[in-house]
Amino acid sequence: xxxxxxxxxxxxxxxxxxxxxxxxxxxxxxxxxxxxxxxxxxxxxxxxxxxxxxxxxxxxxxxxxxxxxxxxxxxxxxxxxxxxxxxxxxxxxxxx
Amino acid sequence: xxxxxxxxxxxxxxxxxxxxxxxxxxxxxxxxxxxxxxxxxxxxxxxxxxxxxxxxxxxxxxxxxxxxxxxxxxxxxxxxxxxxxxxxxxxxxxxxxxxxxxxxxxxxxxxxxxxxxxxxxxxxxxxxxxxxxxxxxxxxxxxxxxxxxxxxxxxxxxxxxxxxxxxxxxxxxxxxxxxxxxxxxxxxxxxxxxxxxxxxxxxxxxxxxxxxxxxxxxxxxxxxxxxxxxxxxxxxxxxxxxxxxxxxxxxxxxxxxxxxxxxxxxxxxxxxxxxxxxxxxxxxxxxxxxxxxxxxxxxxxxxxxxxxxxxxxxxxxxxxxxxxxxxxxxxxxxxxxxxxxxxxxxxxxxxxxxxxxxxxxxxxxxxxxxxxxxxxxxxxxxxxxxxxxxxxxxxxxxxxxxxxxxxxxxxxxxxxxxxxxxxxxxxxxxxxxxxxxxxxxxxxxxxxxxxxxxxxxxxxxxxxxxxxxxxxxxxxx
Lengths: 96, 477
Description:
By secondary structure, chain A is mostly helical.
């Protein structure tokens, strides 16, 4: 049973403001979706071992741990999209 | 006046080479068509202002014989694929004014090929939905019936092709978002094998599920566009080498019908009748049809609605009003996050973020997320076994034709059930293609229907072969 306080907790974890009216709607909707997905517990089967991590079917891919580009190469392009900036940095409100 | 209706990519390429018309004339014809019909259908969020100058560049390429098959071909691109210097909003308020600082891999490949980008197409916000009704900028209409949805989430890309507002388009498919709108609009949609097309520069939704795919008028065109965009890419470490299996060899193909999936309640009668007719058509062309067991395939949708929101909640954490996109100022820095995300994300995005947060939270993680991954492996194994006996698994693409705009807006679960046949391909990573198979007549409207064929990993070649057979394309070339 999903209650309003559960939705409030999820909204807090997700860092999303939601209205009181929406809390009730979301509680009902999320509960019905969770009830639906519960059917995965009925599944019976075998794992495809050939494609599982343990068998080496997949492996992590890393790039070399060194500078992949010149420092500052993309700074201007990327800062272009920042809502607030100052002297080549993104600016946020005071934290402490 | 160029007859857009009968154009395909290969035919257009011939015309451009022979000089029947120029890329500029072709682009102008599409702009005129968009001018005429665009307002009714609303397939596009933006028509680019430099279409004709792109076409001029393409004409130079063609004159120098530098262009490939796509030189001068007018394309529409879903609004979650980045093209440098152009807006890309994922149909969300949180990215409404975002300008792409770099090219996605698919965009840079298409630029090199000399393709002409007409504009960016409407979609469900962050590709979350099956109707484009979740777009922050209003829904797209189905060209076959303006009171109905075009499907989604790549609804704009499919509607643009069905209404001759582009020759071909790109969409993205996380749970059916290329195939289902292709089916609803009566065009071809391909979801490639996971990893064959780079995701670099695609705005992420569910990273283990997302793949970019073509929406076209014919299977031949889907093959051309797929070959142009596929690549193993250093910028996407999940991308894979494709064996490049050329044209499928002639043989007697076997199609498997999964009773486990077809027994689902709620398949429209006309869809079922059309599906059976399509099976007969394949038989008459020499395809063998048999039953195939996929006991866990029916859990794909439930698995999908755990794994996808889990990945959504993680991927959408980056939208915080600090680095880029919408910024709404609150009383302190944390309040900036809450305000920006609360107002910037639409209802479906917020619902999925919270659902994903729930299934990933300690105490529920094992019961939902881990269990879903276990069942995901069962499903993969089912298909692996199935493809030992058949070349294809065939179902309808969707259980019903396009619904009325607004009909399912207040019942998200009912909307999700439309993905029952399409989610297995994303859960397994297998390729699948939707091909138009007929119509359901309602009043004076003909609503398009589609069939879906799935094949084994990397076997897009036989999907194209079967698609061309089914649509009788070879006869017209």
